[in-house]
Batch of 4 targets.
Target 1
Amino acid sequence: MWLASNHKFLFSFFIHQPFIMKKNFIWLLSLLLSCINNNPSKTQLSEIKSHQAKTPESVSEDSPDCDPEKWKHVYDPDRLQVLDKCKIVTGVIMERNADPDGDEHMLLKLDKGQNHLLKKKNKNKKDGCLVIEAVCVNNITRKRAMGICNGYANNVWLPKVGDHVKVTGSYVLDSNNGWTEIHPISKIEKMK
């Protein structure tokens, strides 16, 4: 009975997963078997809801952590493949510079346990750092980007080189360059 009444929820949950890894397959199999017996445990139900809350597809566009309005001011957004709509990372700012498209381009040396977020190009071309970009914080000098920031003032706090920070924003693959980024940044906070 439980499976019959909740099949739409289960279908929408699993259809929106970008992939199911081996460990998730085993968990899924045990969940489905218990559902067939109409007997899912409360733990399994809470695991579904907690796992769903962490998936990129389920992050609400009105999430207090990520600001979807910033996407309206991203220069050439088609080059950015969204891997996670709202991601939080931590690390140390290693470099900062103004891009001609008005963005502040920074390199973030990730704290331990986050290196899986880096691609080979991050390691080879960005000294093992994650690229992070705050949109519309500098003067635009690239002609094709003119107008992207009209009427918009980005008030994100910008750290100094050497600051240990927590960065929130969209985790993307820059298909033009082959490295991963947080772009656009929604929030940066200095850590102690």
Target 2
Amino acid sequence: MGEQEGRLKAEATGGEQAVQPAAPQTPAAHKEPQEESEDQEQSALKEWVGLLVRAGIWALLIYLFIFQVSIVEGDSMRPAFSEGDKLVIDKLTYRFSPAGRFDVIVFEAVDANRAPPYRARDYIKRVIGLPGDTVSIHDGEVWVNGTRLDDKCGPTFVNGSRDKHELLVPPGHYFVLGDNRGASKDSRVQARQSLGYVDERQIKGLVRLRFWPWRKWKWFSRGP
């Protein structure tokens, strides 16, 4: 009996598979109902904050790269667009193709004669001259590369003069006019009294949709 007890002790102490007694387990702490409720509220708040952050990031990306909403101010584009019209501006199209003649665009420019001075604003105008075009205005009519435009926007003058004014649109720029020619500041004069040629880098996008007022809802295709 003594020999058997000795062998068991040797196996238990000298072998590699000796088993140590398990430490007693401490029972999990029980949370009070009030603590559980606070944890759930904090978890829900974190989820909402995360959702709002993701939504804000998506909204910013859409605004920067896909479209924006603009509100028309003034009457320079009447009768096509009026004060208060709400428009959707397509920012994606011009990433793949240049602006075309008669496209209605929104671009950023500085009007030195408007207070506060030298502050960039968004303007809406119609593209008339493309890079390299020769635009002539005389006797109330607009000519592009020797062809008279039949745009039905009424008489067009430069500073009220019927004399001939000829402009060569530089590379990478566009010549724009407002549809309401008598009440539009646009590319007709290359000075402080004008917005001048529009650099392609100033263009924010193409007017695609008027959604307000709802009775004037309209989808706008690109110029012919």
Target 3
Amino acid sequence: MKQLPTKKIFLVLTLFFMLISGLRIGWTFMHQMPQHPQAKKGHIDLSSWEFTDDQTITLNGEWEYFPNEFLDPTKNYNRLKSVYTTVPSSWPTLHHEDQENYGYGTYRLHVTLPNTDEETQYGLVFRRIINDADVFINGKHIDTFGNPSTSPGNTAGRNIPNTRKFQATDNELDLLVHVSNYEIPFYGGIISSVQIGTQTATIKERTLTNTLQLIVAIIFLLHAYMHA
């Protein structure tokens, strides 16, 4: 294939980096979160928050964490020993020290939503959980990532972002996430923000993310083609 002149290559590279920088700035701008309540000691109060179809918010803050336990979501576990851990971050170093970040446990967050007369369709956006997870809301299983397990050898890690809708029949949610990791030694647990919003808002968030990632992939492919 005929090589492009040096000046033209320089121009293409300049435009390429300008476009990447523009996308990055646009991504940051469009993903700016408004000021909103943070989780404290395993509870986040969103009762005064006005949800719209154009914006999701995070459930960042202090979640309860039960190391080496997969809690039964249908039973009362308030008397079990837990610790508070920041989400998003790698999980607490409460597993066996010689196993680095391997192990399993349960995250829990109590969410208070606004009071409404109608049943509202909400959605949750999970970006990255290391490495397998089951998600429950008010005792009901709503999603699975991979194959969470209490022992190695049975897992099937799946870290791709996912959006899951649910219907809020009242304004109190008990969110449980079973997480296990036996594959990645550097970190584990819920390492990216969990987002909540109306079903429409979470679908828009997922669509925007996928679209921007596709644009970046196309740009890289064009760049590689022009320099082949």
Target 4
Amino acid sequence: MENDIIMTAGHCITDAAKCADTKFVFGFAVKSAGGAAATAVPVSEVYSCKKIIKRDLTNPTGILSGIAALIGSMINGGTGPDYALVQLDRKVSGHKPPADKPEPAPGQRRQAVRDRPPGGPAG
């Protein structure tokens, strides 16, 4: 990946207008167990969505579609993709992408990745 492209949830950025209104904040973290999250970050850590490169959201909405998604999830192991690849307004500096994680040990499973930190802004 380039250092100006990131992946987020497809339901968070649904079209060009939502992209234009979306900001990505780096450096927002809880640095120690039981600590508080930063309440301010430098403006240099705030990036804008420049454009949607690719987006897939095949999760249906609505009550009947939700029931169908639940049944499909039970049969197929999931309701479908929910992602968006977006290009940022500039290259990210001062941060490295997370390293690839090794395969989990036998009997263990991968943990889900949150699209925001606990208590952080919703997508």
